Structure formats: structure tokens, C-alpha cells
């Protein structure tokens, strides 16, 4: 016997509300927690570039005596960890998504991978021709610039204003840090870049929680 909860909606308006509620619930299940998407990257930039600033400060000063290899090693490990967290979170959320959305995601991931490999291969060819401080600036400014551009591209692909705005912010602070020069760039990216990503993740999570 049907219970009252099993009965169909009595009118069209109730049916539309039920459909919208089910659609919103499905969207929440398919959307990864924004904190897992943003915060690992924010921590990686804040800590990694922060160590670069402490070890390789403007004017070739050393604020904290660290091994030369430590900042890059820490940044690399944290970036790999952030990528792993995002891949796992995305796989869990989008495992049932097929069609154009799935294809866009795969192609966007390929753009990240091939774009990163291309710039690193090119910069590796000229790295030894530059002083250490300028080589560091070139690597970091190019990598951060690629990140900002791909964030804007991702926002355009999925019509995601938050992602596009974050890409704009990253691009603007990258320009500011580049013009400021070696040492200062690391500080700008650590504080404004890493901090900005953490704030973006917190705001995105609040919006997720307040979705109808």
C-alpha cells in the first residue's frame, strides 16, 4: 500500500519544486568539496613560496638560513600532494559524469599537463644562462602565469565566475610580483597568491553550503 510520502505531488507547482530539489541534491553530490579543490594549492603556495622568500630575499639577502635545495623541494612535494588530493576528490565526485562534461575535464587536464611540461622544457634550456635570482624569477613567474591563464580558461569553459576571477587575481599579482623583481615575487605569490586561493576556497565552500 502506498504511504502518503509515496504519493505524487498534487499540483504542477509542487512537482516542479520536487524536481528542483532533486536536481539540487544531485548537483551537490556531484560537486567536490571546494576546500579540497582550493586549500591544498593555497597551502602549497603559501608555504613553498614563503620559504623561497625567506631563503632568497630581495638583494640576495638571507632572512632564514635554509639549505638552497629546501624551498624548491618543499614546494614540489606540496604541489604534488595538492594535485593528488584534487584528483581523488574529483574522481569521487565526477565518477558518474559522462558526455561533454567528462570530455571537457579530460581535455582541460591534458592542457595543464602538456602546458606545464612545455614551459619547463623550454626554461630548462636557458636556465644556466641566467643569474640565480633571475632564473628563479623566470621559472616562478612563468609557472604562475600559466596557472592564472588556465584558471581563466577553465572559468570560461564551465562558465564558473569564481574560477575565472581567481585566474584574473593570480595573473594580476603575478604581474605585480614580476615588476617588483626577484625575491619580492615570491613574497607576493606566497601571501596574495596562496592566501587568495585559501580565501577563494572558503568563499566557494560557503556558497556550496548555502545552495538551496
Descriptive account of the structure:
With 212 residues, the chain is an all-alpha fold. The chain has one domain (34-91, 100-209). The chain has seven helices and no strands. It has helices at residues 12-30, 34-55, 70-94, 100-126, 132-158, 161-180, 184-209. Helix 2 (34-55) runs antiparallel to helix 3 (70-94) and helix 6 packs antiparallel against helix 7 (184-209).
* Major beta sheet summary: none
Number of helices: 7
Mean pLDDT: 85
Assign an overall shape: globular
Approximately what portion of the residues adopt beta-strand conformation? under 5%
Weakly predicted, low-confidence segments: none
Category from helices, strands and their pairing: mainly alpha
Distance N to C terminus: 32 Å
User: What's the helical proportion of residues?
Assistant: over 70%
Radius of gyration: 22 Å
The ordered H/E elements are HHHHHHH
Number of strands: 0
In total, how many domains does the architecture comprise? 1
